[in-house]
Amino acid sequence: MGTYENGRAFAEYKDSLDPIAHLRNHFYTKENQIYMDGNSLGLCSKDAERAVLRALEDWKTYGINIWSGAPTNYFLYHDVIGAKLARLINAKPEEVTICANTTLNVHQCIATFYKPEGARNKILIDELNFPTDRYAITSFVKSRGLDPEKTVKVIHSRDGKTLNEEDILAAMTEDVAVALLPSVLYRSAQLLDLERLTKVAHEKGIIIGFDLCHSIGNIDHDFAKIDCDFALWCNYKYLSGGPGAIAGLYINARHFSRGPGLSGWWGNRKDTQFELRDTFEHADNAGGWQTGTGAVLSLAAVDGALDIYEGVDMAAVRAKSLDLTAYLMYLIDTELSSYGFTVGNPREDAVRGGHVALEHAEAARINEALKAAGVVPDFRYPNVIRLAPQPLYIRYTDVYDLVQILKTIMDTGAHLKYENKAGTVA
């Protein structure tokens, strides 16, 4: 954490030094709005818009020939975009593809890697990860006629906010076949040590994968060092690939010969795919884990959004993210603590993701008051307002102004007109 000062002049000074400030110009931002929800849905970019409009024009122009006649190689689009994503996590281009959604990719990975043998028959998860991962694993286990109570092993939190890594390691016992853990916890923003967890898992003969939904595009992961077996993520948060964007999938190259647990024609070898053989021949890369035909318009949005990262060092993105969140925590401590606000996320850089978990007993109604005042946050039960200063388009002055708006809300009691409960979409 750096040294910070109160006052808007300091925030303006920080903005003047920002080496990636120009990236904000790629996005559609609104005057009088502070968008702090990039960890739920990133803003639309001009790059994503351009790519979608190009795909629409290609569809109009080429019809069915879009697959082979357009300048963009839509037939291998998933490989092209996969290579762009791979650069962000320092993986091999052939190890990353883009397909389906996060939940279906959980099903795909568990179907691929869960091979129970004797006493090694458990799937290890934690109780704090976003629940779709647990839903998917539970339904997978049931579909195999197994009892989730006996097959799914859950790591419990000591404080309800974070995971103790020693507890995770202790849970990696001889009965565990596969582990799926989050990179960053979606409520508390805790960042796990993926390299350490992978090393120990492998020493114990466990296949391990990670859910990167709350880290990719914001944290400079190094998968060449982490060397886990698989990973999955959505592309609509920090990567700004569009609402419900098609998702991402990493398969370590050492597993290419294994083949997918769930097969589909789009994962077939490209040189024989349209021979439509009765026998599936999976492509010898992450693309072999494709199932159905890719949704070109969604692919295009992600493709365009990733153009913004070209020439950008992920270490610089991470550095600004850490600085913005540290600055926000400083302002919470110095200007908001007297109103009952506390910081619910880890403070150390090495274990903090990209958002701040602002806690308050009346968080739900304060969250609504923030929306009315032109701030876009989100609420997570029971008492967390998540504030994500996305480093590609959030400024230090935005962080400063956000805190002043919160002070005004509390001073005027503007939050009291709202019920202290979350809406349907928090």
How would you portray this structure in words?
The protein is of the alpha/beta class and 426 residues long. It folds into 2 domains: 8-43 and 313-417, Aspartate Aminotransferase, domain 1, CATH 3.90.1150.10; 50-307, Aspartate Aminotransferase, domain 2. The chain is built from 14 helices and 13 strands. The protein has helices at residues 8-17, 46-62, 66-69, 77-89, 102-113, 131-143, 148-151, 165-171, 194-203, 223-226, 296-307, 314-336, 363-372, 396-412, and strands spanning 34-35, 96-98, 122-126, 152-155, 176-182, 207-211, 230-233, 248-251, 342-343, 356-359, 375-376, 378-380, 384-387. The strands form 3 sheets. The chain has a 7-stranded mixed beta sheet, with helices on both faces. The chain has a 4-stranded antiparallel beta sheet with strand order 9-10-13-12, with helices on one face. α9 (194-203) links the parallel β5 and β6. It is globular. The model has no long low-confidence stretch (mean pLDDT 97).
